[in-house]
Amino acid sequence: MTRRVLPYRIPSEDVVAAAAWSLMTEDGDVAMPEALPDWDYQMDLRLRRTVRVDLGRARSQSGLPNDASLMLSAVWTATGSNLSGPAQHVRLTESGTSTVELDFRLRGADLGGLLLLDTALVLAERRNDARPSSPRRAGSVLWSDRESLRLQGDAPQFPMAVIDFARTSFPEGAAWHLQISGGLESATMGSLLLLVNEQNTITATAFENAGKPRPIDRVVLSAVYADAARIMVEHALGNDEFAEDADFPEGSLGATLLSLFDQLFPEQSITDIRLRQRQSPALFASDLQAAVKMFEVS
């Protein structure tokens, strides 16, 4: 394990004993998995872990006085939305060993991609009386760890909203509509929006149940994701800037489309697929249908 070299003393790793993260579900606590393939932007996440901190050793090994105030902090970062924020802060002023229960809920609308959970033990207040070799600034990290949870698998993920198509310019009988706006350099989260027609109860209910889908919900979600993938790929191929040698910023629409293309057409060039789409649209449609594995049970 590599460890950062900081300009101040820090305690040994074993002053903090952190249990694994748990995910709170309708069926109770479960160990946080590596990925949630059925996760949806309407699905909030409640996470919990227990952390024990030997405050006496943490202070003494860092060269801090016994009355130094520490803080256990949990921070989240979502690569899909490029958002991050504090999840929970617990101030630690007592002596001896302290047991902290981290328990918080994250809004699904703020998440996406890879969810990073950072837990850190930090100095809570600035210490003007600290020794030269001891931490003195508020926020100085004494211990930290990071865990991750992948919230999107092979299916494209993007923000969504359930609305009444009768109040819009979209056909009232349509079940969903994927909006793509902005250029390939634009942020993905601001460029994609999946709109679901609330009047189409089968589709709207499927997304409501996305965290725990029934067989009929899986069929509907598979159809929506397949259609969204088709629209995204066709949008990409219609833009001449979408090419193998393109270098799009991380989190941009172009980077998202390149990632989707690589998942659907591994070891195939954009030039070849674009040519196939133009010369034989029907064959391209079948190739894309096979690539997204429509209705395949995972």
Give the CATH architecture of the largest domain: Sandwich
Q: Kindly give the count of domains.
A: 2
Tell me the Rg in angstroms: 24 Å
Count all strands and give the number.
12
CATH topology of the largest domain: Immunoglobulin-like
Stretches with pLDDT under 50, minimum 5 residues: none
Largest sheet: 5 strands, antiparallel
Element order: H for helix, E for strand: EEEEHEEEEEEEHEHHHHH
Q: Which structural class fits the helix and strand makeup?
A: alpha+beta
In helices, the fraction of residues equals 25-40%
Give the N-terminus to C-terminus distance in angstroms: 35 Å
- Mean pLDDT level: 87
Put the structure in a nutshell.
The protein is α+β, with helices and mostly antiparallel strands and 298 residues long.
Descriptors:
four-stranded antiparallel beta sheet, 7 helices, Immunoglobulin-like, 298 residues, alpha+beta, five-stranded antiparallel beta sheet
Kindly describe this structure:
The chain has 298 residues and is an alpha+beta fold. It folds into 2 domains: 138 residues, Immunoglobulins (Immunoglobulin-like, Sandwich), CATH 2.60.40; 132 residues, no CATH class. The protein has 7 helices and 12 strands. The strands form 3 sheets. Strands 1, 2, 3, 4 and 7 form a 5-stranded antiparallel sheet that branches. A hairpin with a 4-residue loop joins strand 5 and strand 6. The two termini are 35 Å apart.
